[in-house]
Design goal:
- By secondary structure, the chain is an all-alpha fold.
- The protein is globular.
- It has helices at 9-21, 24-36, 39-52, 55-79, 84-87, 106-109, 116-132, 135-154, 160-180, 187-204, 208-231, 239-264, 268-285, 290-293.
- The chain contains 14 helices and no strands.
Length: 297
């Protein structure tokens, strides 16, 4: 793979300024953001919304996350832009993208463009406000996205343009989905389109990091296809039902995405199984129990 190096001078000046001027507690706060805004955390938040609060909101956020993730990873691998600390000596890597690993091993750390954290933050803070057309919440959400983007720059792991591109990709996908998602007759085409485009992308980008995102998109899209055809559960009718569903989701999530992976050990094949099969189970199979666990059931 041919790695690329390109940046604007102002980007380097900004990173160096932040790293030399911001107090330590700000950098520690940035590190906390890096550990919290992750794929697993966001997936659990969106899955919880889907199962225990509002199914349509959860579906929308998960679809936008999966679609943006596939697009971002395709670009990330194809462009292979090196991270700032790898090309400018004065820039420090304060918090690697994958902690505890060699920051210069980009097969593990991933490349720089676009910023996955900025993409995920856009989904976290803006997906539902845009879907519901709640403009005041969109304005508040933009502040959250800006803080996350700023943290990636300050930690030395992204150029500012990486965060801008991650934001734009997620925003465009959210806007497109918000226009067509409520037309329920189109949803099957949305699911099948995400599956088809993701799989076709493997031809041009066979990197395992991209394939893992494809596995996640498959698990989400197939899960929703099966849920709508064979399950079609309703939103909880009481706080008690929400709590019980959420508790079950937490236990199942911990089992499928924490305990079993630890016992199985780290491997690319298992990661693909985890993202596809385990996601499918929690989205389409677990809701089959709701008739039993809901009080009204």
């Amino acid at each position: 793979m041919i790695e690329s190096v390109f940046y604007f001078p102002w980007e380097v000046y900004l990173i160096i300024f932040m790293q030399s001027s911001f107090p330590d507690f700000v950098m520690r706060f940035f590190e906390i953001i890096a550990d919290v805004v992750t794929k697993n955390v966001l997936a659990f938040i969106f899955i919880s919304v889907y199962l225990a609060y509002n199914k349509d909101w959860g579906k929308f956020t998960l679809l936008s996350l999966a679609s943006a993730g596939v697009c971002c990873e395709f670009i990330k691998v194809s462009v292979a832009r090196l991270r700032p600390y790898a090309v400018v000596d004065k820039i420090k890597c304060i918090h690697p993208n994958v902690a505890g690993q060699n920051p210069f091993d980009f097969k593990i750390q991933g490349y720089s463009l676009p910023s996955g954290h900025s993409m995920m933050a856009t989904n976290l803070f803006l997906a539902i406000p845009i879907y519901l057309r709640k403009i005041p919440y969109v304005a508040i959400g933009l502040i959250g996205v800006f803080i996350v983007a700023l943290s990636r720059v300050g930690l030395g792991v992204h150029f500012p343009t990486d965060t801008i591109v991650g934001f734009i990709i997620a925003l465009v996908i959210i806007l497109i989905l918000s226009r067509i998602y409520d037309r329920k007759e189109y949803r099957i085409y949305i699911y099948l389109g995400i599956i088809a485009l993701s799989l076709v992308g493997i031809i041009f980008c066979p990197a395992i990091s991209y394939i893992k995102y494809v596995a996640l998109a498959l698990g989400i899209s197939l899960g929703f296809l099966v849920e709508e055809k064979y399950v079609n559960f309703e939103n909880p009718k009481s706080r008690r039902d929400s709590i019980v569903r959420l508790a079950g989701a937490l236990i199942l999530f911990a089992l499928l995405f924490v305990l079993i992976p630890k016992l199985a050990g780290r491997s690319d094949l298992f990661d693909c199984i985890k993202y596809s099969l385990f996601t499918f189970i929690i989205l389409a199979i677990y809701p089959l129990t709701f008739n039993k666990i809901d009080r009204d059931g």
